Amino acid sequence: MNFRLAVQPEVKYLSQLVADAFKDYDLYQQTIGQTFKQAADFHQFLKRLHDVHLAASIAKNKVFVLEDGQQILSVVVLDNERMPSANMWQYIQAGGWQLVPYFIGNQLGKFLTMLDKAEKLPQQKPQTNWHVNLLAVNPAHQGQKIGSRTLEAFVIPYAKAHGAKTLSLITNTPRNVSFYQKNQFQVVDERMLYFNGSQVSNWSLVRTLT
């Protein structure tokens, strides 16, 4: 297996993988997903959203893939205070203009603000904390412990080698909380996220790297 930085030509493939992996995820389904009448439109939105997210993040060397031969098993987006963040122009260059209709019709701005606040909750020591912004396992390989292997064999050693003292993330289902707790993460915050009368549970977790 090989853990490496993702490259721009892979964006379309990776965004499809992430959209497929997260199409039933509570964070999306129970909030902005409620603004779509058709499941196909919602799935197309997820792909476009991650097109932009991944393209902008790849440009900043934040996206990693775990591959076995020619098969990508998982995708990870890592954040750290020392990593540069994409600005508005860079998001536009990454295809952000395609998301304009969703800001108007589906309140994407409100969703992104809610998500940004949630992502910041567990990052208590940003100078030494690395944050898992996204971890998606290829649906064709789910149930094969790829998520645990991605964390234990690749993400955690990589973060530690680059000075990380803690690794944080958020998740939105009890099943995922249990998964991360089995991987030595501890819950540091639990609350509800609200979006247009809808709500979703949110857990912040942190693992100390020693």
Q: What would you note in describing this structure?
A:
It is a single chain. The chain is an alpha+beta fold and 210 residues long. Helices cover 41% and strands 27% of the residues. The protein has 8 helices and 7 strands; from the N terminus they run E-H-H-H-E-E-H-H-H-E-H-E-H-E-E. A 7-stranded mixed beta sheet has the order 1-2-3-4-5-7-6, with helices on both faces. Helix 1 packs across helix 3 (39-59). It starts with a strand and ends with a strand. The model has no long low-confidence stretch (mean pLDDT 95).
Question: What are the SSEs and their pairings?
Answer:
Layout: E1 2-5, H1 11-22, H2 26-29, H3 39-59, E2 63-68, E3 71-80, H4 88-93, H5 100-105, H6 108-120, E4 129-137, H7 146-161, E5 166-171, H8 174-182, E6 186-195, E7 198-208
Parallel strand pairs: 4-5
Antiparallel strand pairs: 1-2, 2-3, 3-4, 5-7, 6-7
Helix pairs in contact: 1-3
Task: Summarize, please.
The chain has 210 residues and is an alpha+beta fold. The protein has helices spanning 11-22, 26-29, 39-59, 88-93, 100-105, 108-120, 146-161, 174-182, and strands at 2-5, 63-68, 71-80, 129-137, 166-171, 186-195, 198-208.
Q: Please give the radius of gyration in angstroms.
A: 16 Å
Low-confidence stretches: none
Strand order of the largest sheet: 1-2-3-4-5-7-6
Shape: globular
Mean pLDDT: 95
- Helicity level, as a percent range? 40-55%
Task: Give the biggest beta sheet.
Answer: 7 strands, mixed
Q: Based on DSSP secondary structure assignment, what is the total number of beta strands?
A: 7
Structural class: alpha+beta
β-strand amount: 25-35%
Total count of helical runs of at least 4 residues: 8
As an assembly, this protein is single chain
Distance between the first and last residues' Cα:
25 Å
SSE succession:
EHHHEEHHHEHEHEE
